[in-house]
Amino acid sequence: MLSRHRRYMGLMVAGLFGFLLVSNVIPDPLASMEWRVKVPSDFSWSQKLNYWFRNIGSLVQDNFGFRATLPVLRREMRVVLESPDSRPFYAGRGGQLFWGREQTPQQSSGALVRAENVERFVDMLGEMQRVLAPRGTRIIVAIPPNAQSVELEALPDWSDGLAYPVTEYDLALQGLKARGVATVDLRSVLREMPRPRYLLTDTHWNNQSSVAAFNAVMAAAGHPGWQVDPAKVVGPLQDAPRGDLLRNMRMPPEVKEENFRLQIDDRGAKPRFDPSLRHHNEHIAFKSVVRDFAATGPRVLIMGDSFTAVTWPRLFAYSDASQVAWMHASAKVTGNCDFNFDDVKRFAPDLIIYARTERFFPCYGDDWPTGLPRPWTRAVPRNVAP
Fold it and tell me: Which residue among 81, 103, 119 closes a domain?
């Protein structure tokens, strides 16, 4: 027979495990009870059921088991105990929040320079241009910068002492220029604009910066007539939903978020799927889509991420482009250099705008686009013994 104190201990342990199991069906009081991604309204019932079935795990994770309450409780306990906290974000001047993961601060300051990974990225774009140039396709590279690379005035005090001569962004532009690939330095474009340039509580730029970057790319691509008039397209500042940094914090908003209203005449058709561009990204929100505009004209392909997915294809409504496609530049949301080049060739664009965001543009490991020849004839694949 177990001693009395061991029986009590066993009951306590069983009760704890029982509580943890039951908590998975108890709605979290601080949860939003919403799906991470809204189900498209044009989905049929079978498609909706399929989506709900595939994403039920993320719904439970976000809204049950006190997964929203526990981080807040942890924060409040640390405040009471006067204990420092470690977060995936940090605050700058004027309430600006900055993302701290994926080595973003080190990358923007130049403290981290992964020369081999940047060289691999340059090799990839150079090889793409070599293959596509005979087909009449032009490539222009425009990397959306990290907020730390643009909002210099809003960086925290401790960053004032950081002064490194070269960044990965610099190396990429230099390497691409040497290979004859057209580029746009969006850092300088955005730094010349008045603040705010990026959202206060989000890793993304605001709509005004998005339009300015688009215009700079159109001019560099040899289509100045495709630029849009910011005075007509960019409206006044208005309240905006809290950004991804605050959602990651699982805390009530501490800063009021605002964004410029977009006033776009969507004369093009709604986004549609195209058999030449298959959905290759792991996230359901990043589908490869095509918009139809003019009856005839150039075909454009934007290879980007969340910085360009919503706004840039719509801005072509004022151009004479016939079709504008958008595809994610990676098979993973946080991945890089592993898209399907066969899709690119099948779509046969006249212009490619490669716009993968700064913190994800270097090519890691053995990642390489499917269907793109490798320029290293004697290279040994990863995890293969020589």
Answer: 81
* Weakest mean pLDDT among 129-133, 202-206, 209-213: 202-206
Could you tell me if 68 and 129 lie in one domain?
no
Question: How far apart are the C-alpha atoms of 114 and 363, rounded to whole Å?
Answer: 10
Contact 108, 144 (CB under 8 A): no
**Spatial separation of the C-alpha atoms in residues 305 and 204, rounded to whole Å:** 11
Q: How does pLDDT run across 95-152, given as a tens digit for each residue?
A: 788 888 889 999 999 999 999 999 999 999 999 999 999 999 999 999 999 999 999 9
User: What CA–CA distance (Å, rounded) separates 328 from 280?
Assistant: 8
Question: Across 206-247, where does the E strand assignment appear?
Answer: 234-239
Same domain, 197 and 343: yes
278 & 335 share domain: yes
Write out the residue range of the structural domain in which residue 47 sits: 16-81
User: Which tokens is 56 given?
Assistant: 């039920």
Given a contact cutoff of 8 angstroms between Cβ atoms, the answer to whether 330 and 264 are in contact is: no
